[in-house]
Write a structure and sequence with these properties.
Elements: H1 2-5, H2 13-21, H3 26-34, H4 40-55, E1 61-70, E2 80-84, E3 89-103, E4 106-114
Antiparallel strand pairs: 1-3, 2-3, 3-4
Helix pairs in contact: 2-3
Length: 119
Amino acid sequence: MKGLAGEMIGKTIETIAIAILGVRKVRSLQHFFTGASWEATHVTVKNQELSTAKIADENCMYTIDSREIPKKGQDSAEVAAQYCGHLGKAANCQSGVYLGYFSVKGYDLLGHQLYIPKP
């Protein structure tokens, strides 16, 4: 989550792992995402529990925003010709909606959903 929410460019699992863990730990993290058995919903719920305990504040703010990622080809899930905010025009892209939480104690990504185009 730290890598995905950070400011780095080219957010692949490899670049995130190298930036956060260093080159030696890259392979074990890649195995976790590709070969290990885990349920994303459980990870999201656990993240929300930990965040609530650490950064909860009555003067908080929730944000809901979309993010479009330009894509070439049709190999990624739910890629379609649609408005791409990143490019400022309609293009072949993937779109998601994200729920964020912000307080004076910190911030976190609480949830996300991939947009499924009608076609």
